[in-house]
């Protein structure tokens, strides 16, 4: 049998004990990505929470709007309260699908899958810099 002092200084024993005391890893994201709130005003489609979503994603609301309008091929504008209005009636599912594509292309880090990134423009080049792992990924201009 080993004495108490030998157990205290046994590397393998101490390592296993430290690993057991670590918190269990979860699959939770660092923060939840908010969904877009789509409403209709007559023939116009309004995205109510674009300002909040853009703030959470660390993106300029004009960049998110430009991507959505370009992909939809529809005219639109940003209201003074940073709500986006599309001058066409577009289904909420179509907007959510495009929003998911925006997240994949311009927000999510391809290296570590984190949404904790920022979009940076240098001249004509755009890239995503991950705040979690530090990776830099060049993307197509918005």
Description:
The chain has 2 domains: 33-107, Defensin A-like (2-Layer Sandwich); 112-142, no CATH class. The strands form 2 sheets. Strands 1-2-4-3 form a 4-stranded antiparallel β-sheet, with helices on one face. Strands 5-6-7 form a 3-stranded antiparallel β-sheet, with no helix packed on it. The mean pLDDT is 86. It is elongated and about 80 Å long. It has helices at residues 4-8, 11-21, 50-57, 61-72, 92-106; strands spanning 38-41, 44-47, 76-78, 84-86, 117-122, 125-130, 136-139. A hairpin with a 5-residue loop joins strand 3 (76-78) and strand 4 (84-86). It has 142 residues and is α+β, with helices and mostly antiparallel strands.
Topology:
Elements (H helix, E strand, L loop, with lengths): L3 H5 L2 H11 L16 E4 L2 E4 L2 H8 L3 H12 L3 E3 L5 E3 L5 H15 L10 E6 L2 E6 L5 E4 L3
Antiparallel strand pairs: 1-2, 2-4, 3-4, 5-6, 6-7
Helix pairs in contact: 4-5
Broad CATH class of the largest domain: Alpha Beta
User: Mean of residue pLDDT?
Assistant: 86
**Strand fraction band?**
15-25%
Low-confidence stretches: none
State the order of secondary-structure elements, H for helix, E for strand. Answer: HHEEHHEEHEEE
Helical residues, percent:
25-40%
Question: Compute the gyration radius: what is it?
Answer: 23 Å
Q: What's the number of structural domains?
A: 2
Structural class: alpha+beta
Neighbour order of strands in the largest sheet: 1-2-4-3
Q: How widely separated are the two ends?
A: 69 Å
Largest sheet: 4 strands, antiparallel
What is the architecture of the largest domain at the second tier of CATH?
Answer: 2-Layer Sandwich
Kindly identify the CATH topology of the largest domain.
Defensin A-like
CA-based shape: elongated
């Amino acid at each position: 049998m080993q004495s108490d002092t030998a157990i205290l200084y046994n590397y393998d024993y101490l390592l296993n004990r430290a690993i057991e005391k670590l918190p269990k890893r979860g699959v939770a994201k660092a923060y939840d990505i908010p969904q877009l709130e789509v409403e209709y005003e007559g023939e116009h489609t309004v995205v109510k929470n674009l300002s909040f979503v853009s703030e959470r994603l660390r993106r300029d609301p004009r960049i998110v709007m430009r991507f959505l309008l370009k992909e939809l091929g529809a005219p639109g504008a940003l209201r003074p309260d940073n709500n986006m209005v599309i001058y066409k009636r577009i289904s909420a599912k179509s907007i959510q699908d495009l929003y998911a594509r925006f997240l994949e292309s311009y927000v999510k880090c391809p290296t570590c899958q984190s949404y904790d990134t920022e979009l940076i423009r240098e001249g004509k080049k755009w890239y995503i810099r991950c705040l979690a792992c530090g990776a830099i990924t060049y993307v197509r201009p918005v």
